[in-house]
Design goal:
Elements (H helix, E strand, L loop, with lengths): L6 E3 L2 H12 L5 H16 L9 E3 L10 H10 L3 H10 L5 H13 L1 H8 E3 L8 E4 H15 L7 H4 L3 H8 L9 H6 L10 E3 L2 E3 L3 H38 L1
Helix pairs in contact: 5-11, 6-11, 7-11
Length: about 240
């Protein structure tokens, strides 16, 4: 047909459960997966379809088997605009999707910076101010894209105490001191933040916001990656116990 395609074999969790009960201690998951893939390739009877086009997945266990590889393959075959739309719409269950989201969000930081900067005349003619509200809003948006678990949720309570503390850092209320919060990310002490009422004052507003939003995204990424690892471990334990 001359078109790209992927063959997705679902419900691998059911196959694993059935084979494990059948073979007991002699069960070999790697061998089972190999046999399923070979069977799929044979049934397709297409010389252009090898194992790399076959994906073994389970919708109940997106952290296992070929789910990451499938998402990567789909995004690699899409034009850039469609790839961005897909990446931002996907659940952040995998490191592949997370890293793609971070890449997209970092690519948009300059646009966010431009919106956040306001030029005021009056008290200090021609001075540059940064409105705090857009920064708070974009941090909330980033947190939503990372799909950080809500406080008190079952997923949140499954995390280690260290991860919970790191997660709390990205929840800022209207009563929190935003300049002090931003300063906590600036370990290199690059900026001495000054404020006037609800505005942050700086001679270089665009580089200022670009710098801090990238720092925030970097720390969100490392936190989200650690959360994915932690949740994958928990899921594997629960999954193995259920067999």
């Amino acid at each position: 047909m001359g078109k790209s395609y992927f063959f997705v074999r679902t419900q691998i969790d059911n196959d694993r459960r059935s084979e494990k009960r059948k073979h007991g201690k002699k069960f070999n998951e790697e061998k089972m997966l190999k046999e399923i893939k070979n069977n799929c390739v044979e049934c397709l009877k297409n010389p252009n379809c090898g194992e790399e086009k076959v994906f073994l997945v389970s919708s109940y266990h997106p952290q296992k088997w070929d789910f990451d590889r499938l998402q990567t393959a789909i995004m690699d075959h899409l034009p850039s605009i469609q790839k961005e739309s897909l990446a931002l719409s996907l659940r952040t269950h995998s490191k592949v999707v997370l890293k793609q989201k971070i890449k997209i969000l970092k690519g948009r930081v300059w646009m966010v910076a431009a919106v956040s900067v306001e030029k005021r005349f009056g008290f200090w003619p021609s001075s540059k101010y940064i409105d705090e509200k857009p920064i708070r809003d974009i941090v909330d948006s980033y947190r939503s894209q990372m799909e950080f678990p809500a406080f008190g949720s079952e997923e949140f309570n499954m995390l280690t105490n260290k991860l919970r503390r790191r997660l709390r850092r990205f929840y800022i209320s209207q009563n929190d001191d935003l300049p002090r919060w931003l300063k906590s990310f600036d370990r290199a002490n690059k900026y001495k933040i000054k404020t006037y009422t609800k505005y942050i004052v700086t001679n270089k507003p665009l580089p200022f916001i670009y710098y801090f939003l990238n720092l925030i995204l970097d720390e969100m990424e490392t936190t989200a990656l650690d959360i994915i690892d932690e949740m994958a471990k928990k899921a594997c334990v629960v999954y193995d116990d259920s067999d």
